[in-house]
Structures are given as C-alpha cells and as structure tokens.
C-alpha cells in the first residue's frame, strides 16, 4: 500500500498570505526576514509556551584562532517564562528547551539557511505532522509551526535536523539541541537541580587549518559513519567541569553522527545510572561502564562529597572489540582504523573529496571530559533507593505476540538497508502498516541468524523509532560474536523506557513498542546518521 502527500494543499498553505492578524500575532515574521508560513497556527490551540526558533549561519569561537562557520538555531520566548529557553550563546549548540509534562507548546521554526531543513523532536510522543518527517522540510524563507502537548514523562530528550539524505551534514553543522522535560513525580524526589543538574552533550568533530568544520562524504566514510578527531562536550574542546563536594545529576547525551562511546570513570568508580532515553529508571543501577550510541541518553548520579578539593577525575571512552564491525575493518583497525591526517577532505563545512581516517578510531581508548573538585560545599541530596514506577509491558498483550515483526539490518552493495529495502517516500509496504492503539512485538536482527545480512558487513546499528517510547524484552547474540560482545555487554541498560537501542553485530534485540494515540507516518531508522542518509530508514503507517 502506498500513501500520498497532499501537495496541492501544502502549497496552498505555503503561499497563503500572512494577513493583518498574522502580522499582529507574529510581528517578527513581518519585520525580520519575511518568512512565509507553510502551515498555519491552530485557532483552538492555546499554548502555555510559545517559542520562535530561527536557523541561520553563524561564526562561533570553538578553537583558538579563527571562528568556525556553523549552522546555528537561536530562539525567542513569545509566551511563557524566560527560563524555558537557553540559547547557549557562544556555542554552536541549538537552544536548550525545558518543558513540563502537560504543557501545550507552540514552536515556530523559521528557516534562514541556504538549504531545506526540518526539526525532529527525538523521543517525544507527538502527532505525525509535528514529528519532523523529511517530507515536511521547508525552504529558505519559510516557516513551519509545531503544536503539541508534552505527553512524555520527565527525561532528557533532544531535537535535531531530519532532512532527507542530508541529516548527517546538517546535524554535524550544528542543528541539534537539548529538550528536557520535568514532571511532578521527578520533582518530588529532590534530585540535584539547578547548577547540580548538568547536561553534557558529547560530539566528535574535525577541523581544518582555518578552524573550519571538515565533513567527508567519501563512500567509505559513509559506510562506517563519520568519525571526527576531536571530542567536544557542550560544543567545547578539552572540556573541564568544576564541581563542589556535592551530588550531581549528569545528563549524558550522545550527539555524535556515528561514534559509539563506552563511558567509564578513570578511577574505576562504577557509573550510577538513574535514567535513560525515556526518563528515570525504577531504581538506580550501577555499571562498570555504559555504552552510549548516537541518539541515546543516560543520566548518572555522581557524588563528589568524599573527594578533596583539587581532585581531578576523567570520564573516558574505553576500548571495546570492533573485530566484527565489518569484514573490511571499517570500524576500527585495518583500512579505516589507523592514525590519519587532518584535512584530507579539503576543508569547508560541507566537505567532500578524499577519504579521511580519524585519529580517534572507534573502539579505542580516549578521554571525554575532566571533572575538577573546585570547592567544598555541604549538600543534602541523597540517592533514592527507588525512583519512578515503570509499568512493565507484556509480550502476551502484543497484537502480534505469536508473529513478531522482524527487521533485518544489513549493509550490502554500498547500501544500508532495512529488510532489504532502502528509504523512499510514499513506499509503505504491507508489513509496515500498524493499527493505532496497538502494542507491537518487534525484533531487530543484525546478523543473528547468519543469513543474507550475515557477518561479512555487519556493523553496530543504533535503531531509533519515532513516536512513543518502547521497552526491551531481550537481547540475544550468536556464538560467533560472543567474545566481541563480552567487551560491551555490561554497559547496556535494558530496563526503563527507550527510543534508541544499540544492536551489535550478531545480535537480535526484541522490543515491545506501543503505537498509541496518533495516526500517520512514523519513521524507524538507524541513528548512525550516515547510515540513515544512505537509506537505512523507513516509515511505519499507523492507521
């Protein structure tokens, strides 16, 4: 079955005159840039928070010396408290947005870039036409109006460009930011807040001799996913976080295009995990390290009260086995994994040219950030023994309990595929149609069965499903991959609510996902952004 987009209606909305009412309600549209609305605000939607976001080019000081040309989103609060938005001035990061469950939000997106773009609200449960599907991309000079209620529980979410075939380049250039939700349950726990609640967005980038972003579109880079040669945290290199002798809530976000992190404290202190993609866990968990793939988030509790002022501690990404990440050695050693030279792609934000080799191969050991205990301070935060209740989903309640939907992940003939299919708009197949308000059992098979998508070209794939969060039922790994898998297996958090799950080579991950409330197209894809742009993305039609 195929779906169609009503292009005539879209063009009608696109070119509708703004009129006097529009100019009064949104004076900046009339006075700065002359943006043309693609869709209109709803007369019956009364927002608690209204924010105008504008995408522009900008020059930002990232490294010493020349400023770096980036694509920067800036925001302005029209309705609501000013603290709902932080523009992260002086960095390339998009504004951090903070909402409360139950709030009605209107976000007005103006595109002032020399390219089409659209934003996806990663992890949020919103209507299909508010989700940022690439078919809604707007041109330079156009505006898209998002309206939705915050239905998600408290958690660390984020948003980023989701433009067909150029998502990786646009996110890499700066079009991504944090979106944090709170609710009454979370606030009752007395978790560290204010300056003790620290978001840490981890990304890798490469720069040329003039401090300009370098991005390679070489086919081998696309097959492995782009790997930069510097780690940035919150848009800064060599990041140092000064802390007091208090407990902190650290919100770790993997905002990289393809890099997978194996996060651990360098002194061997276990990582105490209190939350993941979809918010707080039922109870804290301790792990020797945590695996964090692109699109995933983890919240860690870290208490520095027993450490002397002047103490330093590093968060590192530890070595893990990449031997099964591809028969050609694309994800570490061999052709793509040795030490390389910067600037091989020629330079410029949008890059191109020759193949690049990152000086930080995937699976190697390198520092992420440094923490320095800067002052002594008494705190009253105590790690709760229990956090928030999480109702368990049950396989017996799935509409397809006896017939799971299997999605085979494969890299073949320089293509990244789902069930042997590449992404196309308006290409819904019968097995991609799902009844609304149903619970679905889904298997992601990354060479577990050794079939046509078997071991030769297997790579890790962080699989992201738009819409409602899901729960992991089980992980299975075949015997050929068990030794490599052992180097990462203790870093998976399998409880709680997820929207992105890392599926390793030779592994099958089974999940239960609700498809409630909203009909329409919702995407599922690999969150290795180069893989996504190569076609490892499809749509479910919820009807």
- Approximately how much beta-strand content do the residues carry? 35-45%
Tally of discrete structural domains: 3
**Discrete helix count:** 8
- Poorly predicted runs are 1-32, 324-356, 452-456
Query: Biggest β-sheet, characterized?
Result: 7 strands, mixed
- Overall body shape: globular
Number of strands: 32
Tell me the name of the CATH class of the largest domain.
Answer: Mainly Beta
Helix content: under 10%
Radius of gyration: 22 Å
Question: Care to describe what's here?
Answer:
The protein folds into three domains: 7-184, Cupredoxins -  blue copper proteins (Immunoglobulin-like); 194-375, Cupredoxins -  blue copper proteins (Immunoglobulin-like, Sandwich); 395-542, Cupredoxins -  blue copper proteins (Immunoglobulin-like, Sandwich), CATH 2.60.40. The chain has eight helices and 32 strands. It has helices at residues 7-14, 19-25, 27-31, 167-172, 184-187, 219-224, 482-485, 529-533, and strands at residues 36-37, 49-60, 68-79, 85-86, 96-100, 104-111, 119-122, 142-149, 155-161, 176-182, 197-205, 230-233, 236-237, 240-244, 247-254, 261-265, 271-276, 279-287, 290-292, 297-303, 312-317, 366-375, 405-412, 415-418, 433-434, 438-446, 461-465, 471-477, 500-503, 507-515, 520-526, 537-542. The protein has a seven-stranded mixed β-sheet, with no helix packed on it.
Element layout with pairings:
Elements: H1 7-14, H2 19-25, H3 27-31, E1 36-37, E2 49-60, E3 68-79, E4 85-86, E5 96-100, E6 104-111, E7 119-122, E8 142-149, E9 155-161, H4 167-172, E10 176-182, H5 184-187, E11 197-205, H6 219-224, E12 230-233, E13 236-237, E14 240-244, E15 247-254, E16 261-265, E17 271-276, E18 279-287, E19 290-292, E20 297-303, E21 312-317, E22 366-375, E23 405-412, E24 415-418, E25 433-434, E26 438-446, E27 461-465, E28 471-477, H7 482-485, E29 500-503, E30 507-515, E31 520-526, H8 529-533, E32 537-542
Parallel strand pairs: 1-8, 2-6, 5-10, 11-15, 14-22, 23-26, 25-32
Antiparallel strand pairs: 2-3, 4-5, 6-8, 7-9, 9-10, 11-12, 12-13, 15-20, 16-19, 16-21, 17-18, 17-20, 21-22, 23-24, 26-30, 27-29, 27-31, 28-30, 31-32
